[in-house]
Amino acid sequence: MAAVKGIYELTVIINGALEEDAIQQVVDRATEFITRNGGEISNADHWGRKRLAYPINKKHTGYYVQYAMVAPPELVALLERYFHLDEHIIRYLNLRLEEKDLEDRAEMKVRMAAEAEAEAEAAGEGERKEGDDRGDRDRDRDRDRGDRDRDR
Question: Residue 49's pLDDT is what?
Fold first, then answer.
C-alpha cells in the first residue's frame, strides 16, 4: 500500500554570503533532491537575501526560499538529513499543512484583497479632499498676501 502524500510548506535559509550562482546551485540541488525522492513542488518562492534576526553560525544574512510541495511522509526525514549535511543551508523549517490550513489561507487572501481594494478607494477619496484643501490654502495664502500689500 502506497503512503498518502501530504501537503508541506518548506522554508530554507541558505548562507547569504555565497555568490548568486552558488546560491542557485544550492537551490537547484534541493529542488532536484525533492523531486527525485517523490516530492512534487507546486511553488518555489524566492524571498531573496534578508538580514537575520540574530546571528546563526556567525552569519548575519541569509537567502530565503519557500517551497510549497506535495510529498510522501518518508521524504521529510530524508530532507532533514540532507539539509543537516549541506553546509550552505543554515536553517530550515518544514510544516505539514492540513486542509483547514489551506482553506484559512484562501479566506485570508480574499479578505486581504478586499481590504487592499477598500484602502485604495479610500486613498483615492483622500487625494481628492487633499486637492480641495490645497485650493483653500492657496486661496487663503493669496488673500493674506493681498492684505499685506494693502497695508504697505
Answer: 94
